[in-house]
Amino acid sequence: MSNYKAEYIWVDGTQPTAKLRSKAKVVPMGEEPPIWGFDGSSTNQAPGENSDCVLRPVFTCPDPIREGDHKLVMCEVLLTDMTPHPTNTRAACAAAAEQYADFDMWFGIEQEYTFFNGIRSQPLGWPDNGFPAPQGGYYCGVGSDEVFGRPVVEDHLDACLAAGLQIAGINAEVMPAQWEFQIGPIGSPAVADHLWIARWLLYRIGEKHGVAATLDPKPVRGDWNGAGAHTNFSTRQMREAYDPCVAAAEALAANHHEHIVNYGDGIEMRLTGLHETCSYQEFRYGVSDRGASVRIPWQVARDGKGYIEDRRPNANMDPYKVTELILNTVCEAAS
Ligand code: ADP
Ligand code: MN
Ligand code: MN
Ligand code: MN
Ligand code: MN
Q: Which residues form the GS beta-grasp domain (predicted)?
């Protein structure tokens, strides 16, 4: 009887920003990946004298790295009594999605990130001393003086498609060596499961190229854009009419602080009011406004229905946490 390799992937307990971990299990063909475990004392998830943590598969897809019948297995972390581990943010996210299932909320997350040379000395393609030419020509650029890391980006897009992830597109960003991919539109927690797997694939494919991707929200100080994770969302009501789109923006306004403190470590470094951001100390929404906290896309204003974009989340945010907060804030206000 033959086997397949299942790469179990989970979110660890690193503070203030959790990291991905993974390890492989050999599983007999025809069987689903079973519940498994790991040493939580090595991932900041348990003390040494009581170290066992449980991995429960929540989303499985083809493994585009190993190919064949091999699989990637996104897991949530449980305690040995099978209740959610304190670091498990997926459980509350799934509960919120369940509670507000009638709203049929969809999310589209724009994940920005930055490539560094293997040892994270400087962004990929930047000179050893000094800086590249100022920002202006790099966003959606073409040419070896404009974009850095495209072979990795293309491999990553292919891998996400082969895995069956709901990837919507890619683009080069404003800061050289900075890129973006989008996951969605789909419901949560699926969008977050897909995003965590897509992040894992980015790091894993970076290994092959000797390039490290980082979700650092402000990888270079000074006059260089930070990295965000704009979170677009819609309820069924928003997809049918304009008033619910405005009501959603107002609900976010009323809960600004609670969202900001959960939108990724170092958010005050990125949301300065410059570089296409609104200061973290303010909340503003507006049509087509990329200096606002929340943007209503122009087509949505024209059509009188659609979705809105929460521009505040950092690149290093936890998509379980961010989508849970948006679900709770927007749906509770509309209930
Ligand atoms: P931007 O102009 O801000 O760069 P992008 O094209 O990068 O926008 O991302 C927009 C995202 O919004 C995409 O991931 C897309 O899937 C998502 N999206 C589109 N329609 C909806 C919708 N009705 N609800 C939620 N997300 C949506
Ligand atoms: Mn061991
Ligand atoms: Mn975008
Ligand atoms: Mn972007
Ligand atoms: Mn955007």
A: 4-83
